[in-house]
User: Fold these one by one.
Assistant:
Number 1:
Amino acid sequence: MNIFTFKSNVIYSCDTYDIVKCHINELKSKYTIQNWQKNRPPDIVRVAQIQQYLLDNHIEIVDGIICAWLKYKTLYIYDGIHRLEAALNINKDIMLLIKIVKTKDENVVIHDFKQINSSIPIPYLYLENDNKLKVSVFKSIMDMMCRQFPNCISASRNPWKCNFNRDTFIENILCKLDVNFQKQNIDKLIFQVILGINNKAKHYVYKNNIDYFKKCDINNFFIMYFTNDLIIAEIQDSDLLK
């Protein structure tokens, strides 16, 4: 039996998944929608950019295929979360294509996720079950950074030094930390250290007359003028984490 009925159009169906064309309002009415826990959290800047693109260009159908795992009455999105979030945010019953995997075996989803992302870096931190604590800590740290420096968030994986990308900051810095993640309030302590490093980077830029973006002064964001290795060393050597 097909997953969707009435307005929806099942384009392709097999034992393990269906590819369905449906309207966003129909999707919301039939299922709870969540980001798959092994997928990276959506980048709010990237979501906003896609949302604006959809509105400015009067898009009627979302680009590409959204991939989801159907478990009970919940769709866990493992690819296309930014496009889906953008579609959910606009006041329009936009059309989308969605691949719905029908299995109780999460390894099938993990395999498909790896295949989809074979050409781009995947933070395997999110795929390993014993890393749940680190994932929680890193998410908390990045949430604090986004609140502290909201104008410096970039969707680019290679941002200018006046900005930071949530995913690459996790991959290039936080994932490489060798600290006790079970220490009480470790997320807040690491963030406090990051703010201190940011101030050090600011003084370094000023003292050495390094050219910098005016945006850095406006937002008091200078940490990316330090190398990733230096930031990692500064965090690990902090007395706050001893």
Number 2:
Amino acid sequence: MERLNERRRLLWAPVLLVLSLQVLLGVAPIGNATSAPSQSAPSPPPSAVGCYQYDASTGWTSVECVPSTAFTESVADDEGGGTSGPPIYGVSINSPIATSGEVWVGFSKFTAESDSKWGQNSFSIQLNTNVFDNGNSQYWDQFTVQNEPNYINGHSPFAWACIQQLVVYPPPGSDTEKCVNVIIQSMWSTYSAMAEGTTTGGNLQGLYEICSPSGNCYWYSVTATDKYGLAGNWLESSGTVLGFGGRSKASFTSPTQEATDISIGASGLNAANTGQSWDSGESNNLSYSSANYAGCASGSCWEDTTSSN
């Protein structure tokens, strides 16, 4: 977390000198997504199963989670499964077992974006784990920010931060999702967002950050029961900005340039493997222009990538 905060400061410092203080986050938020922004990382979120948002004045507050039927109705087809998209960069370890991972995405150039199924400004920020065996089945977990600001497929605009626990085999799987409403977003040339996942006490916890051009950041958290046993099986983290869901593709108009930082963490971790070998059900039309293994510190190992068109 400390290393990403340093990266954010370096990215935002020259931009904040010329941007106005107006918060430009697209259309109005829905549901429980309203909160006062915070320019610094909040205190740790509550550990109890549930959904939370952070307010700069009142701290973490419990809010209603998105009904499970809303996810099924809005994203009816396959959410991924680690098989259909082109390879994306990630980090992996052999031991010890990971207890955390994080993806941070930040843009330095942006023109426009449209999702192949969901329309303009629809996209996801994904932190994906490895596919893992537990008993006779295979599972795959995601920590995501998903943004859909359009009136499409019979529903109103929405944006969620989610923990998704997916059954890869045998199909059809009993996928489970726990999501919190977040502020609906429009991308811009300095858009950034973060998704962090941890395993703790038999639960999974997601921490999510969405930042505005003024530097104000909105924070959300979701805690869910670790239904399929990611704890004890987490060995890979991968992710970036991709299509919204249902195997869709985020297409960016040139010129676009974004940076992704991806990490994996465990107690005593001091080495990791990196490379372009991990998949997601969703994709984008950007090409990797650089990838650098940033090394390890304080039990976390990092890969930094840049993509553009």
Number 3:
Amino acid sequence: MSWGFLIFLTILFWGLYDVMYEKISSLLTPMLSFLFIAILQVIIFGLGYFFLEKGVERTIINKLPILLLAAILLSGGNLAFFYAFKSGASISVAIPAVTIGIAILGAFWGIFVAKESLTLSLVVGLILSTAGIYFIGLKK
């Protein structure tokens, strides 16, 4: 499969998942929601791991610090996003603002940490993205 198709699937799945936050936030508490989501994810990923990744290294002990940090960051982001909806954020503002913000953060990480090249098109894209967050936030 091409990476472009896989990115499309990621956008589709995560985009629909993000849209569901708005609905879930009015039905359940954040902790209860994430508990059930996490339990289901463990089952889904556990089955996927054992059936799709045969022969892959089975020990993760030496990778636990980075995995723990990733779990903490993901959980913090999920809770903040959930509470944004509980605080009255509209779906048409919250999802685009978060998505664009993540793209900007990813671009800066690529430039400063991964040492990727800074191109004119990337600079223009970052400026337009930042302006986009500003204008999306103006929606009332």
Number 4:
Amino acid sequence: MDLSRPKRRKDVAAVFEYWRSLHQDEFLTPHSGLREWIEIEKRLTQDGCTLDQLRRAIDGIHADDWEDRARNLELFHVVKSLAAVQRFVRIADGDAGEDSSSRRKTDWREDPDLLKIDTELAAEHGLTLEEYRKQCGDP
């Protein structure tokens, strides 16, 4: 999907706006350097996801009842990969199947997708993984 830069920025901002409509206490100010922004752009441009699909995936993460959800409810978990988007859309559509929360591990910091992305972003900023995650507000 070839989106113009202004259209892409508008769509990325709309995903953040939808997330924030469900999380009024969200403290992140959307900008192009955030890992969430980068991943939303990838889903829209590289994977061909639509704005509606990303909104449904956000609905899906809220419908999922995985263990320790309150601590791990983050936009990044929705948009970190095409597989994550697809998983949460299935949950939103009521078709979780093998995506049941009881089958997933709860330590999200060890997720291979997250480790890869965080490691790359840390290196871009000249930080260790731990320093980068601390700056991102991870516990």
